[in-house]
Amino acid sequence: MTAFIDTNVLIRHLIGEPVDQAKQATRTLSSHETLLLSDIVIAEAIYVLQKVYSVDRPTISDVIKSLVAFPSIQVVDEPTVLRALEIFVNHRLHFVDAYLVASAESTGVNKVVSFDQGIDRVKTINRVVPV
Q: Where does the record place the PIN domain (predicted)?
């Protein structure tokens, strides 16, 4: 079986509650099935870990990297996700903005149109202010 995995399965595995669902989630992640992990699910998991569980950025990065390391998990765009995690931690951008910057880098576009001045902290791309 190949299937996309939802955020709630990841959170149950990571948080361990409710216990019965956490066990099911961990068994599923440990299976030999192929579980596709989309970028939007990663973004939602990061948001939940930050806002609901008050997990700090370095820990979130480590946790997401541990999920990516599961043999059953295939990230849709792993290099961009890993670079976005680096930007998220080192430049303190929201993950979605970090992902946007990582996408700009990986495509060679190297420009992001945004009002968000935090993007200026990443020197590999240029922020363009909307006109």
A: 1-121
